[in-house]
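Annual report, structural modelling task.

Input specification for the magnesium ion complex:
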Amino acid sequence: MNENPIVELRGVGKSFKGCSVLKDVKFSIFRGESISICGASGVGKTTLLNIISLLEQPDSGNIFWNGEMVLNRRAKDIRSLRSAMFGFVFQNHNLIHELNVIENVLLPLKVRGKISKNDTNFANSLLKAAGIEGKKDETIDVLSGGERQRIALARSLVNKPSVILADEPTGNLDEDNANRALHLMMDICKLNNSSLLLITHNQQLAKLTDKTFFLSSGGLSPQ
Ligand SMILES: Nc1ncnc2c1ncn2[C@@H]1O[C@H](COP(=O)(O)OP(=O)(O)OP(=O)(O)O)[C@@H](O)[C@H]1O
Ligand SMILES: [Mg+2]
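The model returned the following structure:
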């Protein structure tokens, strides 16, 4: 591919308490591609995802979003660029318990402005595709772990982001639902020409993405 990457990491390093987690990482995400990252627990996968979206600062290196160096931008600018560009599925869902299902799904749009009828229709179609349209008015507390994960999935897609960062999005799902969830993400990414970065321990799911990397000893190697 000759086009510029949507996200590029150059020489990124990160340590915690003197312990090096990422070392001189070079990594690019191009528009529309799906990438999976595998690696042992504690190796730095979530840290890498957090650094890509600048939820966490690297100790060294540079980060580019749409070709623009973002590390030196003001926090306010980074927040607004981030919310337009990324959709998140966190390892622990991060759903808001005070809001019901559909309100949780619409949250990334709400923080950016008014919700339109089209937004609500799109959110409902995502819940339908995720097989949980019947639960849209429920509170989060009464839902199962897998249902929460599917809501988090719908929420990550609602702002039609350029890049979806998904941290073990299928970890709590049985095989059928894990497959279904990943296909849902990949289908919607294709529709929006969005990219998907998936962290997974599931080798079968990892094989479904365009590229697979393995993270170990602070570095990414293609599989
Ligand atoms: N804020 C922090 N302060 C100190 N240490 C941290 C911090 N965040 C992560 N670490 C450490 O960095 C290492 C990598 O953590 P990370 O969460 O990125 O791993 P992971 O690959 O996502 O693991 P898992 O598969 O279990 O989710 C771990 O040893 C963790 O304890
Ligand atoms: Mg993790």
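Residues 16-17, 21, 39, 41-47, 91 surround adenosine-5'-triphosphate (ligand 1) (CB under 6 Å).
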